Every structure is written in C-alpha cells, then in structure tokens.
Amino acid sequence: MQQTALTVHQTARPHGFPTAADFAFVESPLRVPEAGSALVENLYWSVDPYHREMMDDLPGGFALHAPLEGRALGRVVASRTPRLTEGEVVFHRKGWRTLAVVTPEEIRRLPRFDGVPLTAYLSVLGGTGLTAYVGLTRIARLQEGEDLFVSAAAGGVGTATGRFARLLGAGRLVGSTGTKAKADRLTREVGYDAVFDHHEGPAVELLAKAAPSGIDVFVDHVGGEQLAAAVGALRDFGRIVRIGTISQYNTPTRSVPRFDHADIVEKSLRMEGFLVRNYLDVQDELYEFAVPHLQSGRLALDETVVDGFEHIVDAFLGMLRGRNSGKTIVRNPAPS
Ligand SMILES: NC(=O)c1ccc[n+]([C@@H]2O[C@H](COP(=O)([O-])OP(=O)(O)OC[C@H]3O[C@@H](n4cnc5c(N)ncnc54)[C@H](OP(=O)(O)O)[C@@H]3O)[C@@H](O)[C@H]2O)c1
C-alpha cells in the first residue's frame, strides 16, 4: 500500500491579507524512502512571516498546488541510510506536511542540551533567536548601557531581542506591539521598560513619550511609520537594524512614510539590513551564549504553541494578525 502524507498547498495568490481559502490540506503520495534517505514524522512546525512573502508571485516563492516547505523538527521513523538513525530528532525544511522523506544533506542534527525543550530549536535557539542575536551583536554591535527601541517587540524575534539585549547589558529597552495585554506582558515578564501599542496614535508621538531622551539602536521588524519615527529619535552614531517590514507584507500598495534624510548624515546614523541565512556560522556562538542562560533560568522561552497539524494554516494567519506572543510553533500532539 502506498503511504501518503497530509500536506498543505497554496491554491491562490492573495491580494492583501491571506485567508484560509488560499490554502488546501491535501493527501499527497509519499515517495518511499530510497537507499540513502529516511522517513521523518514531523513533530513541530515553524510558521513565519517570510511564508507570507513567499505566497506572492515572486522568484523563489511558493508554487501553487504543491506541498509547501518550511522549518520543522521531525523524528526519523524509518531509515535507509546509516547516516540517519531511527528515533533521532532532526531539523529540516520540509515542513507544512505530516511526514517527509529527507536525505542526510537535507537535515541538521540538533545538539541536545540538558533541560532545553525541543521547541527552543525553532524559537530562541533557531532561526528566530539567531536573527535576534545577529541583529544585536553583528549589525547593531550593541554596547553596554545603550538604549534600544524594538518594533513588533512581542513577536518571536522581538522577544528574543529584548531578552538577549538585557543579558548583553542594554540600557533602557522600549518596544512596540499591537495590544495592551502584550505590552503589559513585555514589561512584566520580558524585561522591557516601556512598551506602546502602535494602534494608539502616531508613532512619532508614542515613541517620544516612551523614549523621551532618545535611543541608540532601533531594531526594526515593521518598517513604515515606526521606522520614520525612529530615525528622528536616534542619537548621534545611532544604528538602525533592518530585520523585517511586516507592515508592508499585506498592504504592498500603502505609501511608505518619509523621514528626514539629512538626519542620517547630521547624526552619523547607520542603517543596515541582513538575512539570517547569511549568518549561519554564528549558530554555535548563539548556543554558547544562550544555552547556559536557558539552563540557569535567566532566559525564558516566549512561544505560542498551537496543537495539531490541522491548525497550521490558522496558526500562520493568526501570527500575521498579531494573535501570537513570542514564536509561533505548531505541535504534533500525538506522534506515532
Ligand atoms: N532578516 C531576516 O533574516 C529575518 C528573519 C526572521 C524574521 N524576520 C522578520 O522579522 C519580523 C518578525 O518576525 P517573527 O518571526 O518574529 O514574527 P512575529 O513578530 O512573531 O509575528 C509577526 C508580528 O508582527 C506584528 N505585525 C503584524 N502586522 C503588523 C503591522 N502592520 N504593523 C506592526 N506590526 C505588525 C504582529 O504583532 P503585534 O500584535 O505586535 O502588531 C505579529 O505578531 C518579520 O518582519 C520577519 O519578516 C527577518
């Protein structure tokens, strides 16, 4: 009998916010593992804002009516290669499906650290945490005592940025998010000093109130109005770390707010963007930095874990709408 996997296909290109109607769950035939490959049962899936970018008709974007791909952790359940052992848990990119066939070249082995849960390899120790760590150490080159503003501070990268910045000795930590409840949680639990809800007025006013004496570093996940406000609030030799532009992903035709270009010169500002995939060599340094803090309890996990592969599309759409707090992860509650 041929085995199948439940997969998610994109069935239409969205205009604006995607909806559940742009996706379909499809029973897809599974290639029987050939010699040199292994069958993996997925345990955890990552849903990410870059998936929204891949839904558009762009080079390298998702193909319609084909299983989607994304980051996942899975357990090897059958192996036809000595390089993959049945029972081991691996990281790979064949997500958005229940089962996947992988080769040793397509997986990454996870170092296992005592007391560190598996979800951490998709959140604070995964691409999310690596993005935050690279942003602070390689792009901002954060110095002790410097004051930061972080947009989308309650999300996966935003919470990791806040917690890492505290551990690295940052000064005042200001954030923005989309609800008062999330703002309260950030100041109560994550270590932010002041957080505003970006719906409550012009960003320039909200930021001036939260950071009246200015900022040294802006870690930006949003772009738009908040970026323009931050340029005005930055002190001399300030840095803007451009990580993402989520305010544009679902509203591509909205005009981009202007800022005073002279500020960049007069205040000697530096604006630099980066893609985490170009910094994979920093992964071991992230483990060295973060794992002891996780084990001692100084670093906590911020995750929204949604149970059930059948909810993966809802989890993704909810994350785009800001229903998450920390990294959004989907869990297989009943692995075989
Ligand atoms: N450069 C890289 O290599 C790299 C790597 C990873 C992620 N990123 C980028 O980093 C950003 C955060 O990613 P993440 O994985 O941590 O996602 P996330 O922050 O966990 O989730 C997205 C969040 O964005 C906020 N948001 C949605 N629409 C918004 C809007 N119009 N204005 C302001 N905020 C909005 C929502 O939070 P609120 O409720 O707070 O509004 C939502 O929770 C994204 O832009 C992503 O593309 C870049």
From TrEMBL:
Q: Where are the transmembrane segments?
A: none
Q: What is the lineage of its organism?
A: Bacteria, Bacillati, Actinomycetota, Actinomycetes, Kitasatosporales
Q: Which CDD domains match?
A: PGDH
- Pfam families in alphabetical order: ADH_N_2 (PF16884), ADH_zinc_N (PF00107)
- InterPro entries associated with the record: ADH-like_C, ADH_N_2, ER, GroES-like_sf, MDR_fam, NAD(P)-bd_dom_sf
| Name recorded for this polypeptide | NADP-dependent oxidoreductase
Where the record annotates domain Enoyl reductase (ER), the positions are 20-330
Organism superkingdom? Bacteria
Q: Which PANTHER family match?
A: PROSTAGLANDIN REDUCTASE, PROSTAGLANDIN REDUCTASE 1
Question: Does the keyword section mention Oxidoreductase?
Answer: yes
* Keywords attached to this entry: Oxidoreductase
One annotated GO molecular function is:
oxidoreductase activity, acting on the CH-CH group of donors, NAD or NADP as acceptor
